[in-house]
Amino acid sequence: MAVLGEGAETMQDPNRTVETTGIAFVTGADRGLGLALTARLLDKGWRVYAGQYMPEWPELGALAARHAGQLVPVPLDVADTESTRAAADLVGQHTSRVDLVINNAGVLSARAGPIREAQDYDEMHRLYNVNALGPLRVVEALLPLTAQSALKRLCFISSEAGSINRCERTSWYGYNMSKAALNMAVKLLFNRLRPEGYSFRVYHPGWMRTYMNGTKGTDATLEPEEAAVPALAYFMRERAKDPHRTDRDDEDRLVMRDYQGREWPW
Amino acid sequence: MERTALVTGADRGLGSALCAGLLARGWRVVAGQYMPDWPELGALAEQHPDALHVVPLDVGSTASVRAAAENVAGLAGRVDLLISNAGIGAGRSELGQGLDFPAIQRAFNVNALGAIRTVEAFLPWMGEGLRRLCFVSSEAGCVSLAHRQGQFGYCMSKTALNMAVRIMHNDLYPEGYRFRLYHPGWMRSYMSGTKSTRADMEPEEAAAKALSFFLADREDEGRLVLIDYQGLEWPF
To answer: Which range, A33-42, A216-225, A243-252, has the best average confidence (pLDDT)?
Structure first.
């Protein structure tokens, strides 16, 4: 089993990244990490279709105004199959392909207690629907567009909270289950789509000052703009296949890594 | 001393066979009944009128689980062994052909949330007894060895269940609760609605193996492991 810290060897080739620009689709782009990832992609010259859940929230619109033609906000609620299909149809009217999909939209409960406290099952359904099923909806709806890409890269913001092996929590059933189930969904997608040339990134971005439970967190350790830097570097990095190095990442092994390059067991 | 077990999804298949096996071992059994029209549980109750208590139980419904737990107060007064067995499949929709998200959500509701509902509701009756919590999971929930290219709903629900049991274990092991997380093998049971004829084992054979694992002590109780019907450990 990998040990925390050992996985950092994948950081050794920081310059071997996808150099070309392309077309990206980012979910949950209104604010927080999704917005920061979108801004960073724009700076690198990518065209971005940005899933917009909260049209009244100003930041994405302001970014779009500064990058007219390069950034296209797309109404998107990943909890809703029809909304996700409509978003994919809209993107398909603008472009014949999508190279990079970043499944970032996610939610967290304001409070969730241990089993001796009353559990909120509706809330668990909500987290599952957004965090685990949302990315499945997005990947499925975008298949006709990603199939046209040479890169075919599918990225997923997961969490250390989805690691059953390392779980030390005594509460947070809904969130932890949603992320563990997301990891399983990605593994099944990987089994299905890797033979067609798709490549996958599963990522724990660290604890950020974002809005996941409705209001912006102030206790966390990272600003989303900081967190977006290693996240995008990880998403863009190419992986070498080396049959003599089983400890090394290659595209045929699905791994979850965090913002410091450490691998997390499932 | 007579001990009491609760079994969910006891109507047929593995659940019914687990009830029969426990009764044969002299246990008192509270059997969660989801399908009152199905005959097996009634026949078993006729053979064991004093030891088998059938209670209506839909683990997909919080109200139903809470009502069943209140029933136990009058029936047995306590639960030593909880076996969360109720489970459903999620259909065969495939990626690219329109995944059946309502079916995927139903599988999560029964297979993962059903287990949490059951423990939440029955835990107050378990403090005085054996304190053993058993969960019928599946190798299908193992991310690291997953080989399937579909069956999203079922696989994800079992991964979520494994995570939920891990959280319970973290919380309750220090209080003396002991956990069994189990892959029973591929049985000729009714998970897809009709009885499978192609699988490896009859439910009775699977139940005998399962009960051996549920009832035996383990050396390494502090570590939560998923064990299959051959005694092999599955990684998460």
So the answer is: A33-42
pLDDT of residue A1: 33
Nearest CB to A191: which of B148, B156, B157?
B148
| A202 within domain boundaries | yes
- Nearest CB neighbour to A184, from listed B99, B113, B156: B156
* Alpha-carbon distance values, A126 to A6, A78, A163, B66, B80 (Å): 35, 11, 20, 22, 33
Q: Rounded to whole angstroms, how far apart are CA atoms B100 and B97?
A: 9
Can you tell me the ipTM of this complex?
0.96
CA distance A101 to chain B (A): 16
- What's the pLDDT tens digit per position in A26-53? 999 999 999 999 999 999 999 999 999 9
Q: Tell me which residue range forms the domain holding A28.
A: 22-240
User: Is residue A138 classed as helix, strand or coil in its secondary structure?
Assistant: helix
User: Measuring CA to CA, which residue among A223, A230, A177 is closest to residue A201?
Assistant: A230
User: Token pair of A89, please?
Assistant: 């149809």
| Residues of chain A neighbouring B104 (CB-CB closer than 8 A) | 133
Asked whether A232 and A179 are in contact (CB, 8 A), the reply is no
Residue A17 has pLDDT above 70, yes or no: no
CATH at A91: 3.40.50.720
Sign of the CA dihedral running A245, A249, A251, A252: positive
pLDDT digits (tens, 9 = 90+) for A134-152: 999 999 999 999 999 999 9
Q: What is the DSSP letter of A222?
A: B
Number of folded domains that form chain A: 1
Residue B213 Cα distances to A79, A103, B107, B133, B176, angstroms: 40, 40, 25, 12, 18
Q: Classify residue A235: in a domain, yes or no.
A: yes
Which two structure tokens, joined as six digits, stand for A170?
């005594």
A-chain residues within 8 Å CB-CB of B171? 114-115, 170-171
* Pairing assessment for the beta strands A256-258 and A263-264 based on DSSP bridges: antiparallel
Of A230, A238, A255, the C-alpha closest to A158 is A255
Residue A249 in any domain: the answer is no
Instruction: Please state the CATH superfamily assignment of the domain spanning residues B4-234 in this structure.
Output: NAD(P)-binding Rossmann-like Domain (3.40.50.720)
* Closest in A137, A140, A183 to B143, CB measured: A183
How many whole angstroms separate alpha carbon A218 and alpha carbon A43? 27
Residue B136, beta-bridge partner list = B182
Q: Is residue A264 part of a domain?
A: no
Tokens describing residue B77: 């007064």
